[in-house]
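Predict the 3D structure for this chain.
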Amino acid sequence: MPAAPSDPTDLENQLAFETLMSDVSTRLIAAPDQAFASTLEQALGETARFFGADCGQLLAVHGPQSEVRVLNTWCDDTVEPRWRERIASEQPAAATRATRMRSVNPCVIPRNHRVEEALAAASDAGDLAPFERLLAALRRPYDDTPQHAAYAEPAPPAVTACYRTFCGT
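Done. Predicted structure below.
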């Protein structure tokens, strides 16, 4: 059994949180279908503000691979204007920031479906061309070029829906 908090503010915070959760739960249970979305958004806002956040999300985790899906998002009305104001005043300018970000975030990564395509072509048909194209793209991962655009794209949903690697991802 966990030890009781020694600081009275811990107990006060715990009580405040439990009260909030009780109130939110009661409102969600009682909300009519047509008002549920707005009630949920209000609950997310109250919960986010309780923790000092200006955005909050309700997530669902499901399936054997514990896929995470965003069900609802709440953001304080002041978030976007504050963000735009901040980035407008920041140095360096947006173009310089974008260039810096592109220099450390590769366009091309060795995506599993592309690696498997190259390996299958090589092992099944003795065709090294797909491997050579993949290797050429990976040699210049920060270059955003039309000939390597396919290697920057994620796998199609039909591939990722049931895809599992040796490491469980």
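The two ends are 35 Å apart (CA to CA).
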